[in-house]
User: Fold these one by one.
Assistant:
Number 1:
Amino acid sequence: MEPATREIFFVKRPVGMVQEDSFRMETRKLPTLGAGDILVRIRYLSVDPYMRGRMNLGRSYAPPFDLGSVMVGGGVGTVEQSRDPNINAGDWVVGQMPWADYCVTSGAGVRVLDESMPPTTALHVLGMTGLTAYFGLLHVGQAKSGDVVVISGAAGAVGSQVGQIAKIIGCKVIGIAGSDAKTQLLQDTYGFDGTINYKTQDLREQLAEICPTGVDVYFDNVGGNITDGVVNYLNDFARIAICGQISLYNSVEPELGPRTLMPLLLTRRATARGFIVGDFAPQFGDALKQLQQWYQKGQLRMLEDVVEGLQNTPQALIRLFRGENVGKQLVRLP
Amino acid sequence: MEPATREIFFVKRPVGMVQEDSFRMETRKLPTLGAGDILVRIRYLSVDPYMRGRMNLGRSYAPPFDLGSVMVGGGVGTVEQSRDPNINAGDWVVGQMPWADYCVTSGAGVRVLDESMPPTTALHVLGMTGLTAYFGLLHVGQAKSGDVVVISGAAGAVGSQVGQIAKIIGCKVIGIAGSDAKTQLLQDTYGFDGTINYKTQDLREQLAEICPTGVDVYFDNVGGNITDGVVNYLNDFARIAICGQISLYNSVEPELGPRTLMPLLLTRRATARGFIVGDFAPQFGDALKQLQQWYQKGQLRMLEDVVEGLQNTPQALIRLFRGENVGKQLVRLP
């Protein structure tokens, strides 16, 4: 006897800022499990900035969401029934899950969680968030001990991980964020060396003061004006790891900005490289071991910003683009 | 008895487009040779786009020219007198030389030319131009057989070398230039597979037609609108080698342009990297051997665009920014 489930459908491509009218919730009966399938009760959903790109038609790094399909993203849940011999009822699993109360999915597509870790860590420190920070900072940004690392969107999930990993390996870490509550958090909870509130402080003046020797690695989650400011301080042979451009995701037409990036990359012989974490999949195993080690030693922390209730998942996503989340934005399904 | 020499001084920092009033010619007696010095009669001077950056105050990859100093750049000449035991009167030498008829310089600072090659090749195919093309395409751009390579400023000295080297290693090569005479030259003389006249053709339409499978390497000499057009066609994991940004060098204020580069680098997981040839100096020897081999086999050609007379050197430089040169811009001192 399969339960009924609520599901949130993607029903309208947003123009500009994403609104709740892009989504509609419906209830349906779940299908019967086939061989290898599991029935998962979804406990937490992750909402992430990259989802905005998938709502547009056109080329991005993940294919566009189809209109009329159920929204999907990272999630963790408990197994209610299993027809996969490697998975037991009661196991916690992580994987791509629909925005829904329950789902029937192939057991081969999920990973069973090590229950010595809190299950939500699989959605941040010990999941895509942590891996994105790890590979972006160390492989793309080529950060090394002694480097000055500047992070935009620093109080976001990835940003706060990047800063902590950079501290672990011996970098000087400066975080840019949009409120005093966030900059306080970066200093007090995540141990950043310096912070800038770009809404109340002069970004360039602050960078000049906090980074008198220039910037070696810029981990960019934001783009736009903030990036314009930071790139002026790049050192020779600096690296920009382009992880996100959240300031631009809801633009209808491309914003205009000064043409300073290319000439600066040239004169500083600097490198800007975009990446997505999936490109590093063959190396996930080793990276997760390292992240888990750091986490267990208390060197990696993560605040969770939890919205309650499946029906509030669209609102949780919108919070990201308004900069309202502090730490990893999750939705809890009670 | 040292001869008198004319010398061209840098006397005014240009604002916007460089003009002849930034330069003044004077005549003086040359100093006496010290131990290790040579007296060179300068035969050819190279003028290059990077010189515009050195005319500004502020940070570039080479220090700014001092006001009131003699202009310097690449040159070849013949040795008239030598107090360097390794250099003989009559030798051809290449090195940094003043914009002047003669100079007294340290023999250690020049390289004696192999006289089996025409001496001007040391200023292009077998000199900085060729090396810039070689390292920019192969090391920065990571071009490999089968790649689609697009070059802006393709009829310039570096651009035409890049295209020929890309053909040698088995790439499909598309050149962007600003006149039909130039695009004709790219096809007929340099063997490009396709060309676009950005002044008379729709760049994006042409790229879509000529590069239906996208662009793997973009070798950028120009920047600005042309780069905006090309980056839309980058393939996943494409590389941009930023060699120059000549369209922007004479700007007084940073031009505005659409903020498309960073989001595209992100979604295509592409890399943009600035470079200057000097960073590869330890590898010049091997590269020059390879370039000479290709040159001797007739695989690397270079048109020379020669202006006559030292007094016309400023005008020769200005020609570059007007896009008037076809091939390597030289000044011959009769």
Number 2:
Amino acid sequence: MQTLTVELEDRSYPINIGEGLLGQHSLLQAAVPARDILLVSNTTVAPLYAPAVKSALADRRVVEVILPDGEQYKSLATAARVFDVLVANRFGRDALVLALGGGVVGDLAGFVAACYQRGIDYVQVPTTLLSQVDSSVGGKTAVNHPGGKNLIGAFYQPREVLTDTDVLKSLPERELQAGLAEIIKYGMICDSAFFIWLEHNMAALRALDATALALAIHRSCQVKAQIVGRDEREQGERALLNLGHTFGHAIEAATGYVEWLHGEAVGVGLLIAARMSERVGGMPADDVARVEALLKLAGLRTAAPKIGAAKAAGYLSIDKKVKSGRVRLVLMKGLGQAYLSGDYPDAALQETLRESFGA
Amino acid sequence: MQTLTVELEDRSYPINIGEGLLGQHSLLQAAVPARDILLVSNTTVAPLYAPAVKSALADRRVVEVILPDGEQYKSLATAARVFDVLVANRFGRDALVLALGGGVVGDLAGFVAACYQRGIDYVQVPTTLLSQVDSSVGGKTAVNHPGGKNLIGAFYQPREVLTDTDVLKSLPERELQAGLAEIIKYGMICDSAFFIWLEHNMAALRALDATALALAIHRSCQVKAQIVGRDEREQGERALLNLGHTFGHAIEAATGYVEWLHGEAVGVGLLIAARMSERVGGMPADDVARVEALLKLAGLRTAAPKIGAAKAAGYLSIDKKVKSGRVRLVLMKGLGQAYLSGDYPDAALQETLRESFGA
């Protein structure tokens, strides 16, 4: 087991990464030091892993909320249902929310924990590659609004993250690929050596090679933890973690959050960001080609849905990174050199959108 | 105008208290440095004061949400409606929520500001005495759940509070009295000299004497700001501000949040806390009598509804101050000497509940 710490003063917490962690009762018991536990999971994950968790916590009062599986349930209405369960069971401020699932479960359960009684403890047990390398780290919790993703949420840190790489064996290939997109993102933001490593090890990752997976997850969490440690509430640098996301969100929103997985949309978003960066940030054409090639190696899509540039632009304008009416974009000077900018020619954005989304 | 600061490092903010502040355009303009402003008010307050606010902000984009008046609208459903307005108007992270109203408006608007896009700025313009001395200060935002008050919320500080004492002239007498209960509370917690001052100046306060009001509001905010500055997230000392509230919440909940004003319930709660303190905290009987006398001077009720001790105890157990299944109470050793305790004989609590709520 490897442990790394997200350094946030009194909100610091450990991320534990290793094989078979869910089978280690003492580890779970120590991570969850509460009497009353709300276990939030979904109909796909709960049958696989909830029994192990409950068995480890047999001496506690564990109440389960099993949500339907899917991004469309990451809503304020679902959060309200979870609040109802907490209240109905008279859970107090010393209760703990244990999120067992992917990003949807983690984001929603974290938001509920952030708001219930103005904040109770929560622990993340991410069960998808994407949530292991991204959403379980850094304390961004949220639910979606019909008008846009993650529009209602809170910055709220978990007290611990338990990442068991064994659970990836039951993950559908498409979900694995979606997680790889976020891993590729970290290389593109600030670690070109990691990007090169990924170019050489993508096949091993897709074959679930344990050593390769542990390294990729650890390095991804490390990059994210460092950035979050310097800028928890996204006043500046943390926005770099949204590389590819502004475009990706447009894809997800335009297709109703059901057709594309988040990571798949981010993958295409990374490529669109690279193309825009070639236009305005001086990113070499060769780097753009390497991004496209690595996405393909990961089995990811590289073509956006042809929703039209105008519709895509509409979704950009509700993005959370809008400042004074202007969309700030994460761009790159080259692989591993991301920066945030609201200062780019509109024409370049329009061209990029037309190229990617159609006229 | 007097200004005091709530000291919370990068979340510090000023509370401005004075006569006629809403008529000073430059003051409002400086307090609200955003282009996009969501003005949240209610059907009672908006006709009286929204025109002045909008006139001062004529160069901004001001969108109004006017809620029905009443505690029953401080709900997640109402918050959802306000989120809808923010999204429909494509308000970004740089938008600002301006709460113009009493505690219901301020708590709800603050909660929406805390959650929208994971937190946007908000400014409080409290228009009741109660919100001026209590809910507008300290960053406790929340909505109610049918199972209990303020069960869903966030600690989230405003960027400024503008307290215009002139607005109290239009406040119904019952609302004024409700605010006086919270003012009395501050004396009981930690300032016996202020309690004595109140014994001598209650008539002036009820007659809306401007000098007396300004002094009472300033001193109340000062006490609250000092405590909040030392314990923002209620890890310890801040819980003292809940003196009377655990019992008061039981009264409100048992009567459906409509029959009793919050401050009225807190007033009776203060007396019940004093009686419990006489039993277990060594509070002199004479101090208990002075509390009852001062509440009467303020025109407040002193008798709890006869809902029965068992029902009252049920409401206590869902209170946010429950720790490990035990209700922690704010008690007093005497006037101005409050302390927090989970360590008291259950029989004393039962006796106190029977005495106050009936068998």
